Amino acid sequence: MIVLEKRPQPSRTWSMATPLVAVLATMICGGLLFAVLGKNPVEAIGTIFWEPLFGEYAFYYRPQLLVKGAPLVLIAIGLSLGFRAGIWNIGAEGQYIMGAIVGAGVGLAFYPMEAFYIFPLMVLAGAFGGWVWAMIPAFLKVRFGTNEILVSLMLVYVAEQFLASMSLGLLKNPEGFGFPGSRNLQSYASAHNAELIEGSGMHWGVVAAFVAVIFAYVLLNRHMTGFHIRLTGEAPRAARFAGVKPARLILFCLGMSGALAGLAGLFEVSGPSGQISIDFNVGYGFTAIIVAFLGRLHPVGILLAGGLMALTYIGGEIAQGSLGLPAAAIQVFQGMLLFFLLALDLLTNYRIRAARKEVA
Amino acid sequence: MKFTSLLASAAMVLGLATGAMAEDKTKVGFVYVGPVGDGGWTYEHDKGRQAVEAEFGDKVETVFVESVPEGPDAERVMTQMALEGADLIFTTSFGYMDPTINVAKKFPKVKFEHATGYKQAENVSVYSARFYEGRAVQGTIAGRMTKSNIVGYIGSYPIPEVIRGINSAFIHARKVNPDVQFKIVWAYTWFDPAKEADAAKVLIEQGADVILQHTDSTAPQAAAQAAGNVITFGQASDMSEYAPMPRVSSIIDNWAPYYIARTKAVMDGTWTSVSTWDGIGAGMVGIGEISDAVPADVKAEALALKDALANGSYHAFTGPLKKQDGSDWLAEGETADDGTLAGMNFYVEGIEGDIPN
């Protein structure tokens, strides 16, 4: 008989090790999946994890890892603050959309004027757009005690409709022959979030992601607000005695995650994506939830997790193109990663032991 | 080193490398917006890809990536294909337009073909099909078949392509049935079985006994089948698994001849940038078999219209036609020019409701 025994303290070793074990287990089971599909599992796994980093065309893929990973990290850092305090913002996708719309809207309002202050204004507007969208569930929770999970999630669908409306109406490119979608910001120098060094993948969004990681690290370890966040998550009663004001914490955490998601949207729309279009959002806001947990809600962990997630996306596309793996198989592969992570999480709080036989 | 020059030199090395063994194979890439099993839009593009393989056998190698989101992800997938030596890349969704132009700039030697867009370049062609011709045939059958005089229409996005289809279907339904009304629901998706099924159910509840769809899944067909006594048309693909009822006919996208011709042009070195907009006549738009649920005289009428559209003796937008607001559009006998059709953003007279924006 095998029994689970609760550990007196969560195991630090396992808490660090589970992500690695989960990746390993994903590789093994993913390999089996690919084998069943008739592909060489070693080649498939190799393609996904090796090609983007060290393959023949790594000079192109490595910068792309930054482009793909930056919005994930930026959003996940914001989410992790709330998650640590038990405040569940599930609607980052909507905040990401609103940040992009408001930010791009500000930029397009200046078109075709060229000025140095346009892009900074767009950045502020992007953060503001995301912040406002997150303030709706925050305010409703503080004032009426609504569930922020539901409200923030539902607002994603509202934001999507709003995005469609903007692409077809107010922000539609007047020179676009009636087709949906805004002007392309890539061809509007003052509003373009271009690569800082060409070919490096580094754009302002990547810089912002790194800054956010450092900021979150300092906040959580050196700052009173960070202490309150951690305390509220780990010991809500103690937090109350310590004078934590839940309402302020909710407004701070949701506002912060909304602003960061909005920033991610702005950097994306003004850079890699270039335009507001009906299908502008591709799920970064939801994937970032996975990234936050994969990274153990720790800033450095999130940075690594964002990189890993970006790697499976890019490697997965390469595997599709060169090995003919179906897209669904790649998605299952990514799903396995989260599944194993959550499943193995058990080992952090419990230990497995063989039960001793009771002697009568 | 600058990125573009880096890419260019990589491409050149590749060009040399593939040039050495290139006599053998032409590599053709396809970027798909949906899964190849969607049973509609992407499914038909993939059939085109398979036709290219069947036609050229060992002389060609095809690769594809499915479910690629429109935007930077598409740009990366195209770059990846170009880096890995593709000679010709088909990008099969409107939203791939700017990414295609971006990547084409970096790889001047690779040929690109973008479906349903309007931005051309030295090495970027555009191609689309005159689906509105098929809609005219559909409209005729719909107008004759409806008993409630209510035709439901599931729109995807209010863009010129879709509005053109609604207008064409409506004009021809009205022509054979002056009492017919169109009810239009916007699904804001190309492919979402759940949403499409809901849209179909709503329309059926409102009395529609004909459902036309501009979305790609078979969910509306299933909803119509469940309701009974409602007819539908296959969209993008034949959807013949729902024949003879509810599916009475279909519009089929047939990309195979075009894909084969363009691949051939690359092999022969005769490829040039063109803008193609073909209809029933050229075989790019097919009308799926009209089932026995349709009376013989209606079927004959529909086929006659199809032939007239195919041989060019009739244009689907022939005056007299007015716009929805009552202003004149086309005079007696006048036909619409391609520019107006390409950017169509108004309903014709008689359609109720507004185009959302």
Automatic annotation (TrEMBL), chain A:
Annotated compartments: Cell membrane
Presence of the UniProt keyword Transmembrane helix in the record: yes
Membrane topology: Multi-pass membrane protein
InterPro entries in UniProt: ABC_transp_permease
Record bears the keyword Flavoprotein: no
Main location: membrane
GO molecular function annotation: transmembrane transporter activity
GO cellular component terms attached to this protein's record: plasma membrane
Organism domain of life: Bacteria
Database matches in PANTHER family: ABC TRANSPORTER, PERMEASE PROTEIN, GUANOSINE ABC TRANSPORTER PERMEASE PROTEIN NUPP
Name of the protein described by the UniProt record: ABC transporter permease
Source species of the chain: Ruegeria pomeroyi
TrEMBL record, chain B:
Keywords: Signal
Keyword Signal: yes
Record's signal peptide: 1-22
Superkingdom of origin: Bacteria
CDD domains: PBP1_BMP-like (cd19963)
Residue span, ABC transporter substrate-binding protein PnrA-like domain: 25-303
Keyword Transmembrane listed: no
PANTHER family: ABC TRANSPORTER SUBSTRATE-BINDING PROTEIN
Protein name as catalogued: BMP family ABC transporter substrate-binding protein
